UniProtKB/TrEMBL annotation:
Keyword Nuclease listed: no
Name of this chain's protein: Beta-barrel assembly machine subunit BamD
Outer membrane lipoprotein BamD-like domain sequence ranges: 38-219
Signal sequence coordinates: 1-21
Protein species of origin: Pseudobacter ginsenosidimutans
InterPro entries: BamD, BamD-like, TPR-like_helical_dom_sf
Coiled-coil segments on the chain, per record: none
Domain of life: Bacteria
Organism lineage: Bacteria, Pseudomonadati, Bacteroidota, Chitinophagia, Chitinophagales
Length: 271
C-alpha cells in the first residue's frame, strides 16, 4: 500500500513537471502569465515563482507588472526564501510607492526579518532589524490596522532580546566572573527599564558585587563592600515592596558588618 502511494505521488510529480516544462518553453507570454496565476492560486509557488521570474524583466512597465511583482514577492515568502522575499517586498515599495499594496509590502518586509529571528541563545541581528522596521512602520502608518500587530511583534522581540541578555549575565555569574555579571545585569536593567523582572535583575547585581567583594584581596574589599551597600540602598529606594527585600536587607547588613570589621568577615552569602 505504501509503495503504491509513493508510486502514484512520483507519477503525479513527473506529470506536473512535464506540463510545467512545456509551459516554460512557450513563447506566449500571456499564456505563461495565465499559467503562473493558476500555479499561484493552486499554491504551487515553486512553479509560479519560476514563471514570474522569467516574465519579470519582460513585463516591466506593463499594466500587469504590479500584480506580477506582488505575487512574485509572496512566492518567495511562501517558499520561505526570506532574503529574496525581503528584497522583493522592499523593491515593490520603491517601484510602486503610491500603490494601495505598498503599506502591506512595508509590513511584510519587516515581517520577513521576524520570521528569521532565531531562539534567544543565538545572534539577534534579525530580531533587532525587526524591531527597527516595525517601529518605522508604526511611525509611518499610525492609523494602519497592522500597527497593533506590529506593536505586539516588537514586544515579543524585546522579550527575546531581554531573555538573551539575561542568559548572558547569568552565564557570567555561573562562571564566577562576578564583576562582569554585575555590569551585565546593570546593563540589562538599563536596556529594559520596564521589565517586570527589574527587581530580580537588581538583586542579581547585589549578589554579584557581594561575591566580587568576598573574593577580592584584602586591600580591595572595603571599597567593594561599599559598592554592595550602595546597590542595596538603591534597591530599597526603587523597589520598597519587592518580595526580595528581606534578602537585600541581609546583604546590606553583612556588607556593613564587613566594612566595620574586615578582619572578621562573615559568611560569603546570607543564609
Amino acid at each position: 500500500m505504501r509503495l503504491t502511494v509513493i508510486f502514484v505521488f512520483l507519477a503525479i510529480t513527473a506529470v506536473s513537471c512535464s506540463k510545467f516544462a512545456k509551459v516554460q518553453k512557450s513563447n506566449d507570454y500571456e499564456y505563461k502569465l495565465r499559467m503562473a496565476e493558476k500555479y499561484y492560486v493552486a499554491k504551487k509557488y515553486h512553479f509560479a515563482s519560476q514563471l514570474y521570474a522569467e516574465l519579470f524583466p519582460l513585463l516591466k512597465g506593463q499594466p500587469q507588472f504590479e500584480d506580477l511583482f506582488y505575487k512574485y514577492a509572496y512566492c518567495s515568502y511562501y517558499l520561505k526564501d526570506w532574503p529574496n522575499a525581503e528584497s522583493l517586498f522592499k523593491q515593490f515599495v520603491e517601484v510602486f510607492p503610491n500603490s494601495p499594496k505598498a503599506e502591506e509590502m512595508e509590513y511584510m518586509r519587516a515581517y520577513t526579518f521576524y520570521r528569521q529571528s532565531p531562539k534567544a541563545e543565538l545572534d539577534q541581528t534579525n530580531t533587532q532589524k525587526t524591531i527597527g522596521l516595525m517601529q518605522t512602520f508604526i511611525n509611518t502608518h499610525p492609523e494602519s490596522p497592522r500597527s497593533k500587530e506590529a506593536s505586539g511583534i516588537i514586544d515579543k522581540c524585546r522579550e527575546k532580546m531581554e531573555d538573551k541578555a539575561h542568559k548572558s549575565a547569568a552565564l557570567y555569574f555561573n562562571m564566577g566572573h562576578f564583576r562582569a555579571a554585575a555590569i551585565a545585569y546593570t546593563s540589562l536593567m538599563n536596556d529594559f527599564p520596564d521589565s517586570e523582572k527589574s527587581d530580580e535583575y537588581k538583586f542579581q547585581v547585589i549578589k554579584s558585587y557581594y561575591q566580587f567583594a568576598s573574593n577580592s584581596i584584602e586591600d580591595k574589599k572595603l571599597a567593594r563592600y561599599e559598592q554592595v551597600v550602595t546597590e542595596c540602598n538603591d534597591f530599597i529606594d526603587r523597589f520598597p515592596d519587592s518580595k526580595l527585600r528581606k534578602e537585600v536587607d541581609s546583604y546590606l547588613t553583612l556588607s556593613k558588618n564587613n566594612i566595620k570589621d574586615p578582619s572578621n568577615e562573615q559568611a560569603k552569602t546570607p543564609n
